[in-house]
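Table S2 (text version). Query chain:
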Amino acid sequence: MRRRQRPEVILLEVLLLAAVLAALLLLALNIVPTYARRPWDFETYWYASNAAIHGMNPYDSSVLARLSGQPVGMPFIYPPITLPFLMPLTLLPVEGAAQVWFAFKALLLVPLVMLWRRYFLPATGVVILAAVAVFGFNAACIWDLGMGNVAVIEELTLWAGFAAYVADRRRLFAACVLAASLFKLFPIVFLVLLLVPSRTFGPQWRLAGSVFALFLLLVFAPTVAGFTWARGFLGNLPMERPWGLVNPSALGFIDTLLGDHTTPLTSPPFKALALWTAYAMALAGISLPALRGLWRRRDPREWVLAGAILYALLVPRMMVYSYLLVILPVLGLIGPIASRVGGLAIPAALLCGQAALWPLLGLSYRSIWSQNIWYQNLSFLILLGAWLIYLFAATARRRPAP
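Corresponding structure-token output:
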């Protein structure tokens, strides 16, 4: 049973964490480069919300360009249900709202790291967790803050759900997964964890099915109802298939290898789809023995950590800022394996290494090394390597002693 901490101890820990995070964020924002120092994503949210308020189509890029007076960096690609959550931001001018958005998300890093420590790595110091939260996976956090995405909000909601899952509060977990999926949709697959039996519950098919049905209703109801402007949501989805440094994922890596990220997956000659399918099947095959062992142990904490990594390795759109999701799982699964040769220091250094290389080597995005396909996809390759290490350790653990 987790020992209850005194309120003054918790307050002191929160203040210490906030101070460390503020110092590290200030450092990272000044030394870690990203593609843009302008919040492109947030500006799209702001103009799309403004368009919806004034009865215009938020999914029409020409409407957004007309409102902003210049081309908008990206189209609005989130479901109509998300617009009411973004509309309050339009109470301020776009520049002031962007600053409020930045500060709000920076503050959310404090409860995110507190959740990591309280429910998953209670013996880990706040300084290490704060460092990996800021610099981990090519400074995913800094990319999110700089581009104005919703990643920090999404990850805080997901990890609140994961903490509920570890505490065997499955309805709260399902609610958090539902909320976290309303923007980017893919996280809804975490409802699969409801089908894994714990020491208290068996597989909860009814809860998973009902929440998934509610998800479909919330996301697609305006489109199915026939609202003309809502149809733009589905029309914008295929338009976005980034690659390289901004999308270090399995599909992004395959696109980079093929030199093509514009051909739809479902159009001939199906090269990217075939390679991605073969990769997914191979990954599932080699992961199955470890997952069987997890099924027998019924450890919800390990299920969360393993499930988050598998999700990131398989999802077709794993943007650079979305790697916030897998910082803790790499620490949690690889740290014990590396305990004999340095413990958490090794995975923590591995996670922070890519972001640290930029200022140390004086790299820019135009340098030859920065354009290297392996470097651009280094976050994906590190994550894949960490998962393979975990699978190897799981296999070794199952072998009988001589």
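Notes on Table S2: DSSP finds 17 helices and no strands in the chain. Residues 262 and 369 are 24 Å apart (CA to CA).
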